[in-house]
Target: TetR/AcrR family transcriptional regulator
Amino acid sequence: MNLNRAAISPGPARGPVDHEVRDQIVAAATEHFRLYGYEKTTVSDLAKAIGFSKAYIYKFFDSKQAIGELICTRCLHVIELDVKTAIDAVDRPPEKLRRMFKAIVKSSLRLFFENRKLHDIAASAATERWEAVRAFDGRIQAMLLEILRLGRETEEFERKTPLDETATAVFLVMYPYFNPALLQYNFDDAEDAPLHLSSLVLRSLSP
Amino acid sequence: MNLNRAAISPGPARGPVDHEVRDQIVAAATEHFRLYGYEKTTVSDLAKAIGFSKAYIYKFFDSKQAIGELICTRCLHVIELDVKTAIDAVDRPPEKLRRMFKAIVKSSLRLFFENRKLHDIAASAATERWEAVRAFDGRIQAMLLEILRLGRETEEFERKTPLDETATAVFLVMYPYFNPALLQYNFDDAEDAPLHLSSLVLRSLSP
Model:
């Protein structure tokens, strides 16, 4: 299959076909990682399992990590959507913040712990600070900043503390309870933590 | 040496001599773990290195973990003393809390990261929730509760929230930044985190 591909789709047609093949590799890799774990799988294992040559996979991805990054990005995107949905479902900034804490922990737990074998992609990603994770953290910080800004506008949150300082501190409180590498140690507390933490944070934000 | 011991100290005299031998084993084990790591060392390795028989070590400790627990207890005791000293150096509860955050993170970082090889005892202890760690967490919680109680008495902290609830929440904020298993992932933030987090917590405590 790999040798025929170039003949079938040369030049301009390459883009969409590349996209399809990449999707096919990612889907097969996700399934393979789900069964055998990410850390222990090599690109050779993956090639054998998918039925492509190793060289062919390397045409589309620079490394195993590049495949892992894409899987990770998609997982994190699901979490991000859950969080966004939870925030958008209510109007008042304090309630948005409460929902954000709850949703991010719940969604992270579900995604990473329903399937322990996929979790090690997330743990590697978080430990090695992959680009996918840094981008995700950035978007979570942006959502948080938006809620804080809104709460200051509606005068439900205090305005004395510099906004950046507040945002950093709230993110530091939240972070260990959704970061997948940390979450594995926080398992006992993860159920109740969002409630306790968001209540504390809201008290800190009261005008 | 090991075979003579029973003859030298039979019956009532056993206690103090046991204590000395235990200390000797712990000191040698600490040094061995420091050089070769805790996870990779077996009781046989340890026996060889110390020059005792494996059976003799087992007279004093049930397992490698039992030795690790004692080392861990001593390390955690150093952190506890640092925290206590920091708290006692000032009078006002808000400042006590600030110092507590700073001291616990600083002392944990120093102890566990100056020597990476000893750190894996701490990480095992924290991950597997050894008794030494649970006892330590309990004493940290007690110190925290005492500061909160004092701050309510002096009316520097709010009293509307149930004390237990406040104590749990503040502990959940602090915990990821001193737990050795988590600390390894929080390394980038560990420098600034205590300041940001204690400021947030103090805002949440204001009456």
